[in-house]
Amino acid sequence: MGPFAVDMLKDKVVLITGGATGLGRAMGEQCLALGAKLAITSRREEVLKQAADEMSSQGGEVFYSSCDVRHPDQVASLVNAVEKHYGHIDVLINNAAGNFISPTERLSPRAVDAVLGIVLHGTFYMSLELGKRWIEQGRRGTMLNIVTTYASTGSGYVVPSAAAKAGVLALTRSLAVEWAPHGIRQVAIAPGAFPTEGAWSRLSPTPELEQKMLARLPLGRVGTKEELGHLAAFLISDYASYINGEVITIDGGEWLRGAGQFNDLAEVTEEQWDILTELTKKGK
Question: What is the DSSP string of 115-148?
């Protein structure tokens, strides 16, 4: 039994990018449990289909359509498909992301583009496409962006992610003012350590690094997907209708111990980076 009324999101149509796996799926499952109609997207259709089948088996409706958010034409096609299926969209959760640890001097332009394309451009394209439609339709809506605890501080060794998430943070705060007169609300969540199978293997690929990251957490533990799902559900609900442009940090107090979630990686040697690079590739 969760902390909310079971109909808190009744009949709200929620679109989640990166919604088939990890934290995106966790937020989607929470939305379904509270009465929402769900649309999920990612690049891999077979993963989407499996997720939609599994999620809907517990009750509720799940629509899926593949999309690479780095391409505006695919974003437009996705929104068309969801609107055709449900008639409208009430909530957008910009969750799709990409990240990996690396000394910045080792990065290629392609590696930089991969992260900025998904995180910054993808979030902007999705927000722009749906925002334009909501304004034209005279429809109110809520956009929830997933940023990071280092979006405002920066962090070494994840510089493309830090730069991209800083852009998303600025987008959130900027549109909160500009689009509020249209009834369009902006909110964001800055998660700390929430292990997911894909991201965790790229950001903490060895037991030693994992233990070092855990030691930074004042509460002595990582977050659970249920905790993130509860926060997301509240922020997109009507109970949070006066929260606009705010970023909620959920990290057990980690960022208060010092800026830059990955700055401790300065202790990794060149030889260890070579090994970590290979482990990261295997984890993809």
Answer: HHIIIIIHHHHHHHHHHHHHHHHT--EEEEEE--
Q: Model-level pTM?
A: 0.88
Place of tokens 């929104």: 79
Strand partners, 16: 40, 93
Assigned token pair, 45: 């259709």
Q: How many CA atoms lie within 13 A of 253 on its CB side?
A: 8
- Quote the CA–CA distance of 188 and 71 in Å, as a whole number: 23
Q: Per residue of the chain (284 residues), what is the pLDDT tens digit?
A: 578 888 999 999 999 999 999 999 999 999 999 999 999 999 999 999 999 999 999 889 999 999 999 999 999 999 999 999 999 999 999 999 998 889 999 999 999 999 999 999 999 999 999 999 999 999 999 999 999 999 999 999 999 999 999 999 999 999 999 999 999 999 999 998 888 765 555 555 566 766 777 777 888 888 999 999 999 999 999 999 999 999 999 999 888 876 555 666 667 788 888 888 887 776 55
Q: Quick one: which H or E segment has residue 105?
A: none
Please give the C-alpha separations between residue 145 and each of 136, 149, 179, 284, in angstroms, as whole numbers: 22, 13, 15, 24
Strand arrangement, sheet containing 13-17: 62-64, 37-41, 13-17, 91-94, 141-146, 184-191, 246-250
What span, in angstroms and rounded, lies between the C-alpha atoms of 219 and 233?
Answer: 23
Domain positions in the chain are: 13-283
Contact 63, 45 (CB under 8 A): no
Choose the CATH number for 13-283 among 3.20.20.80, 3.40.50.11540, 3.40.50.720, 3.40.30.10: 3.40.50.720
**Is residue 150 annotated as a catalytic residue, yes or no?**
yes
Of 86, 125, 150, 157, catalytic? 150
